[in-house]
Amino acid sequence: MQISNEEYLLFKPLLFSLGYRMLGSVVETEDIVQETFLGAYQLSDENIKNKKAYLCKMLTNRCLDLLKSARFRREYYVGPWNPEPLIQEKLHDLDPSEVIIEKEGLSIAYLRMMEHLSPDERAVLLLREVLDFSYLEIASILEKKEENCRKIFSRAKQKISRIEGESLNYEINKSIIDRFIKAFQTQDMNVLLELLSENVTVFSDGGGKVNAATRPVQSLSNVLALLYGITKKFPNFNFEVKNVNGQPAIIFYMDSKIQSILSFHIRNDKILEMYITLNPDKLPTS
């Protein structure tokens, strides 16, 4: 398949967007995107009418194969699993070809919910809801009947309905997180009670590589006890709020290296869930 430099620059962020949402892993997605282009270069253009759809089909099939094997590996994962965080620049700094990466369905909360879907449900949902493919195009990509794809989409939407209503307003969410940080530092319980859900839950992902809670920590009192315990254990850390997966998150540093990333699920101005990623395999090295 002949792919011009302009087409490569156009399709690469789209393929990354699809692959990352399916896999929740930056490293695995980058590998699969490159494999997809290498595979495409070896094909003849003769029967390929829509390069975008064909590339998405190639990448989707590779992701489906990986997901099926990953399900086996995931059963032996130590503790909660969080997606690999994607640290980004603000939207207005992005090249127009990369804007697709900033669309909906990118938050850590959304990607965690994707774990409740089968590989086919994940593919149909993303192709339809994020990339705006028609059911006819999805049916062609997945080699299924159009009506079957509609049913798969409906089933997937029902499974992730809990995430609907998530606040994706960056500036509002940042103001909530800034208030949370200040209240946490000053131990202002009135503000913390205002910002945190009574049933707030923390999912701490250490992957068995570092110390982390191996089960979700639930309830306001338990979550605050966990967070205060962490700050006492690591008194000399630095932090900053940055754009992670399209939303504000707190990045913690130890000895100038990223030690962990804390992401949030916010709805109706309340923090419902927090996701602490400590697994060094999922953290940027620079």
Automatic annotation (TrEMBL):
One GO term (biological process): DNA-templated transcription initiation
GO molecular function: DNA binding; sigma factor activity
A Pfam family recorded for this sequence: Sigma70_r4_2
Superkingdom as given in the UniProt entry: Bacteria
Domain RNA polymerase sigma factor 70 region 4 type: 109-160
RNA polymerase sigma-70 region domain residues: 11-71
Stored InterPro entries: ECF_Sigma-70_Domain, NTF2-like_dom_sf, RNA_pol_sigma-70_dom, RNA_pol_sigma-70_ECF, RNA_pol_sigma70_r2, RNA_pol_sigma70_r4_t2, RNA_pol_sigma_r2, RNA_pol_sigma_r3/r4-like
Quaternary data: Interacts transiently with the RNA polymerase catalytic core formed by RpoA, RpoB, RpoC and RpoZ (2 alpha, 1 beta, 1 beta' and 1 omega subunit) to form the RNA polymerase holoenzyme that can initiate transcription.
Protein name: RNA polymerase sigma-70 factor
